[in-house]
Amino acid sequence: MNRTLEKNMCKLPDAVTNSEVPDLRERAEQYIDSGLQYACKSWHKHLVDEHTARTPEITSALHRFLENKFVFWLEVLSVLGAAREAIDALDVVTQLLEASSTVELANDYFRFVTGFFEVIEESAAHIYHTALPVSPQTSMVRKLYEPYASPLVRIVHGQPVSWDPAIVTKEYFCVVAVWSPCGRFIAISNGGPRTRIVDAATLKRLTILESPPSKTRKLAFSLDGRLLTSFNHWPEKFISWDLQAGVLVSAISPEQWDYNTKCSSITYSACGTTFGVLTHRLGTFALCTYNVHYGTHIYSHLVEGKVVGDIWTHGEYLRFAVAKPGSITMWEAGFTSGNTPTEVESLPLPGKFLRDSPVHSFHPTLFRVAFAHSRRIFVWDARRSKYLLKEDARYPHGISFSSDGRFFMYETRSNEADPWQTYLWKESPTGYLLHWKFDCEMGASNQLVSPNGESILEFGGGGVQLRRTVDPTSSPRKQDRQEFIVEFSPDETVAAVTRSRDNTITVLDLKSGDPLSIIDTGMRVHGQRVTGSTVVAADHEKVVTWDLPARDHVLNTKVNVNNSIQTVTTSCSRTHSLHSASISPDLHSIAIMEHIISPISYSLHLHDVPTGRCLGSTSIPGSSDERSWFTLDGCQIWYLTDEDKVNGLTIVKDSESDAIKLEHLGPTNQPQNTPWLSSRGYQITDDGWILGISGKRLLRLPLRWQSKDMIDRMWNGRFLALLHSTLPEVVILELEE
Question: Superkingdom, according to UniProt (predicted)?
Fold first, then answer.
């Protein structure tokens, strides 16, 4: 395989997806013989155990292969429609080999494949056009394979330095999620009738399950992963699907249900024909079982005491745990019989804590109990009557064990103003040791550890993302999510960059990507404009102007308000919240938009920059996106509404009195010179492709760079700036003409 693999083996055309090559199958058969096809798709399946994988001959061959043929192997898998095999293969390498340089390579390549999986799967050519050029500067795959990159887009600014803490992030709105027992799939729901089944390594959507209009509250897989049951609210139903056949199996109305009844957990029998449900109502717990295929209720039993944790399957029975001060008791019941649950085992608990400290999590097979008391987290081993963890945690949230018990996890924060942080603890002979701590990007979200303990799913209203526990990456403290303000000079030589309402403007040379000047404006910037030699910035009360240094001047020059050449105070008082300021191309006028709280509306004030005098004002009814921009001739001002419609104002000057009026033009189509549309014909598709003027696929935006909102980007000639708030810094791209 090492002697055969090479770049563009199938002689594919540039900048196309695999589906756009009509004779792709014929090319694959011509250039990739059957033996090589099998080797590429299956070599990892022959590393059956640690002894085989760790022999010097195998480890040496693996290392040479990863160093010299990795991206060519990916290309073949992409052409064969087998890109998912790369994830399984790299996972096998990291599992079987001990810590070594080969494992480091495999971990880095795993991040490459999962981070760019969609483009690798869709286009073999864009492994070289997109995946390699956009890889982080410090990644091993970039260092080894950069000579093979064929970028069609130049990254002027914003090249990632290192891999993102999350393996992959998707914008799925998710309130309920569950891993399949095999760990290869995840079921996620937005809380409504739609449930997605996604790949557990890439979050790629595999299928969508639609149930009658209702609200999904619980999800549970059968033990073999074939069936999925959801508990839906309003109306109450247990809805089950056969995932292999893709059909609805049953929709069961629960017995004796009312508004106060809640579904706590669901578990399947080993044979997959029945499932058990734990419910609670006003502190009373009940156990119910149902036949999934016949859609019938089997029995219900009231449970004495407080059930902690979820119910679980134990052989042909289901079990649950009841906690009391000083003890925790295991109970067992059949799935199909109507016999009363029987007690099978009782173990000690530290009762002095449990009396006023509810149990937050219980691991059924290891009999480990997690609870909070006096702003501390405790993990108790009930079998050995000992603590495995005692740790400070002021605001504990999301406390849980992995299914194998190797990991224990919770979220906490020091005070209400601090960001939420996840603490992941790993099992050791002496208890749990801190394995990883990271900031939660979605706030107090929900988190699940995979069945094998190697990945964490974080989900909430902000989307879903995966992290790897076997390769923890340090996570920077979460930044304030504020959009960027970017202005390009008319001659396309420099760009001014700042975060909205930040006080620092960075002027970038668009040829080199290096900073020419860093300006400490001494104010919260709401708007700016840059020419080849001048920068103008505005806040709620003043407009400040700086001269830029000569282009051959020392880079990274630091200046502040004392170096400015002009400061003008605007004359209109600010009685409402200032949201944006737009400066005309000739630097003579500034349009300031204010937000009026009640009733919700906006007002726009036009000022003369040299004098600060207010030239005219007008109210803007309805909702706005709080941004405005001048036309190139400075005679009109356009603003964007929340519905992505454009409204315009014409600046009318009375010839006799020199008075200025702002006349409304009303809603219209986007004018061609809007900064959020390319005037040269470049486009961004809904699935993230940047298309050239002729429709050529120039780049597939990474998931982190994608946004459905067009105001999250700004075009200027052949340059594109990505502005959305999930980026750690602005991304500026130069596109192929």
Answer: Eukaryota
pTM of the model: 0.88
**How far is 712 from 723, CA to CA, in rounded Å?**
5
**Domain assignment of residue 184, yes or no:** no
Compute φ and ψ for 61, nearest 5 degrees.
Answer: -65, -40
For residues 247 and 38, what is the distance between their CA atoms, to the nearest angstrom? Answer: 33
- Residue count of the chain: 737
Provide the token pair at 342.
Answer: 């029987």
Among residues 329, 348, 367, which one ends one of the domains? Answer: 348
- Show Cβ contacts of residue 157 under 8 Å, excluding neighbours closer than 6 positions: 495, 497, 508, 513, 729, 730, 731, 732
Asked if residue 637 and residue 730 are part of one domain, the reply reads yes
pLDDT digit string, tens, across residues 5-23: 889 999 999 999 999 999 9
Amino acid at 509: D
Which has the higher per-residue pLDDT, 211 or 137?
137
Residue 2's pLDDT is 47
Q: Are 639 and 526 in a shared domain?
A: yes
Predicted confidence at residue 482, as pLDDT, reads 62
pLDDT, tens digit, 9 for 90 and up, residues 271-322: 999 999 999 988 899 999 999 999 999 999 999 888 988 999 999 999 999 9
DSSP per-residue string spanning 624-642:
--S-EEE-TTSSEEEEE-T
Structure tokens at 524: 């919260």
Q: Sorting pLDDT into bands at 50, 70 and 90, what band is 366?
A: very high
Number of domains in the chain: 4
Has residue 216 been placed in a domain? no
pLDDT tens sequence across 213-255: 888 999 999 999 999 999 998 889 999 999 999 999 999 999 8
Q: Quote the crossing angle between the two packed helices 34-42 and 84-96, to the nearest 10°.
A: 50
pLDDT band at residue 554 using 50, 70 and 90 as cut-offs: low
Q: What DSSP designation does 254 have?
A: P
Helix axes 70-79, 56-68, angle to 10 degrees: 80
Ranking 77-91, 156-170, 559-573 by mean pLDDT, the lowest is 559-573
**CB of 303 closer than 8 Å to CB of 287:** yes
From 318, 348, 378, give the residue that closes a domain: 348
H-run or E-run covering 508:
strand 504-509
- Which residues touch 600 (CB under 8 Å, ≥6 apart)? 623
Are both 333 and 367 inside the same structural domain? no
Is 345:327 a contact under the CB 8 Å cutoff? no
Q: Which residue segment(s) compose the domain that 80 sits in?
A: 18-151
State how far the Cα of 298 lies from the Cα of 202, in Å rounded to an integer. 39
What is the CATH number for 626?
A: 2.130.10
Q: To the nearest whole number, what is the mean pLDDT of the chain? A: 87
Pairing of strands 557-560, 515-520: parallel
- Sequence-distant (6+) residues with CB within 8 A of 107 are 90, 94, 470, 471
* Cα separations in angstroms, 344 against 11, 285, 333, 369: 67, 19, 10, 18
The strand pair at 327-334 and 317-324 is best described as antiparallel
Main-chain phi, psi angles of 578, to 5 degrees: -80, 130
Contact assessment for residue 733 and residue 694, using Cβ atoms and an 8 Å cutoff: no
- DSSP for 70-120, written as a single string: HHHHHHHHHHTT-THHHHHHHHHHHHHSPSSHHHHHHHHHHHHHHHTHHHH
Burial class for 57, CB neighbours closer than 10 Å (0-12, 13-18, 19+): exposed
